[in-house]
Design goal:
The complex is a heterodimer of chains A (about 375) and B (about 70). In chain A, about 5% of the residues lie in helices and about 65% in strands. A 16-stranded antiparallel β-barrel of chain A has the order 1-2-3-4-5-6-7-8-9-12-13-14-15-16-17-18. Chain A has a two-stranded antiparallel sheet with strand order 10-11. Chain B is mostly helical. Helices cover about 40% and strands about 0% of the residues of chain B. Chain B is built from two helices and no strands. Classes of the chains: A mainly beta (about 375), B mainly alpha (about 70). At the A-B interface, helix 1, strand 1, strand 2, strand 3 and strand 4 of A face helix 1 and helix 2 of B.
């Protein structure tokens, strides 16, 4: 399967290279923009917050570069931690950057990212290319990225590694003057130490070390459609989207995600966007809440269990000003999401009941365009 | 392998040579260029939110945003 995927990816890259000869049209680079954010998550005994920054700037008409900075300050007393270990605090820092180059109707991109935690360090590099065809009505995109992680365990000499190879293919299609449709495919081929060194499985009620397979291939296909609304001869007043994703992997997890949202301009300054998200997945083949016999692979990570979650979100943006302080415009944004998780075969060992919890996710950010 | 590469090149050459009459003319694409039609209008926000979901779910990929790190906990 992996060989077929790499061959297919190679063929697609060659095909796209051949498309460079197509007539030039109006592809554009992303807008110059800066975002400064405070993000917050609180749920299931885990609190995560910190700042995030993303700045994108164009150089001439053909080059656009971006840099990002992101911090997760984690204070964790989740159910896994309080039932098998001690609460802890740690910090994850992520630096990223990339450059996009526009040539006729093709955009080439390179990116790099480094994520650092006390016990997990990841380096990622990526390549992407998007190309407009059929008079700009169709955009085809290809992406490749690879990540290499060093995995450790605090206060021990434990050391291992994990590698991930990511392949993406996407098509965006103009259907009408107010409807866009997208299809995206992504494959993630992972190998190495793919589990957490802190978690344990249960065997006849006793804690035993988890053992994961050292390879995992995951695939996802997503379909999306966006529809714009407004007067025929005026500005767009709102838009609605619907997205569906199906995921499957070699650990026998099958997952479905459905998202829908509606963005509405209330007046010149206010934009609000309520949204809904539903997610469900089946359990990995080597997951059990409580094993009754020793197996080669054993896991009790609730992320690998059979569960659903439902999220309700709202984003509100207020345009602060136009053409001041060197910015063409600036906005203040608030995003809130309430997520409820329901686990169907993960027991809270403190109560003997199936586990569930809800989380609050908040973002506050300033955006400026220049 | 060589056969697949040649096939891909043939498809590419065909696509490159194709011309279509656009059913949405360039002057009709004002709405399509509006940020409300974007799959990811706020890329940083979408990335952070996607990271929240990715670290707590078994599925990943084919989304409008990307995350990073271990995300254990």
């Amino acid at each position: 399967m992996r060989l077929q995927l790499k061959t297919l990816a190679h063929a697609l890259w060659v095909a796209l290279a051949g498309l460079f000869a197509a007539p030039a049209r109006g592809a554009v680079l992303p807008a110059d923009r800066a975002d400064l954010m405070y993000h917050y998550y609180n749920g299931g005994g885990t609190k995560v917050d910190g700042p995030a920054l993303l700045v994108r700037k164009g150089f001439g008409e053909s080059v656009s570069a971006y840099a990002s900075y992101f911090v997760d300050s984690v204070s964790c007393a989740s159910i896994d931690v309080v039932t098998t270990a001690s609460p802890f605090k740690e910090k994850r820092t992520e630096y990223g950057g990339g450059v996009d180059y526009l040539y006729r109707n093709t955009t080439l991109g390179v990116s790099a990212m480094r994520s650092t935690e006390p016990d997990y360090k990841t380096n990622t590099v990526g390549l992407s290319v998007t190309h407009e065809v059929f008079e700009g009505l169709t955009t085809v995109g290809l992406g490749y990225a690879e990540s290499h992680a060093d995995v450790g365990k605090s206060h021990t000499d434990f050391s291992d590694h994990a590698d991930r190879y990511q392949y993406k293919l996407g098509v965006s299609q103009v259907v009408t003057r107010s409807v866009l449709a997208t299809v995206n495919y992504e494959a993630n081929l992972e190998s190495g130490y793919l589990q957490s060194p802190y978690r344990s499985a249960r065997l006849l009620g006793l804690s035993v070390p988890e053992v994961y397979p050292r390879a995992r291939d995951g695939y996802a296909v997503a379909l999306g459609v966006v529809k714009g609304f407004g007067p025929d001869d005026g500005q767009l007043k709102g838009s609605a989207y619907l997205r569906y994703r199906y995921f499957w992997d070699t650990w026998d997890i099958r997952a479905q995600t459905v998202e829908a949202g509606y963005a509405r301009r209330l007046d010149e300054r206010w934009l609000v966007e309520p949204r809904l998200r539903h997610y469900r997945q089946s359990a990995a083949s080597f997951y059990a809440d409580n094993f009754t016999s020793q197996m080669v692979y054993m896991a009790r990570d609730r992320e690998l269990s059979d569960f659903t979650n439902n999220a309700l979100g709202l984003r509100a943006s207020y345009q602060l000003f136009d053409n001041r302080f060197g910015l063409s415009r600036a906005s203040l944004n608030l995003d809130y999401e309430l997520v409820r998780y329901h686990y169907n075969n993960f027991t809270d060992v403190r109560t003997g009941q199936l586990y569930s919890y809800q989380a609050n996710v908040i973002q506050m950010f300033l955006s400026g365009w220049f | 392998m060589k056969r697949r590469t040649l096939s891909a090149l043939a498809v590419a050459a065909c696509l490159a040579g194709c011309t279509v009459t656009p059913w949405v003319q360039p002057y009709e694409r004002g709405w399509l260029a509006d940020s409300l039609m974007s799959a990811s209008r706020d890329p940083l926000s979408d990335k952070v939110l996607q990271h929240v979901h990715d670290v707590r779910e078994g599925a990943r990929g084919a989304t409008v945003a990307e995350g990073g790190g271990c995300g254990c906990n």
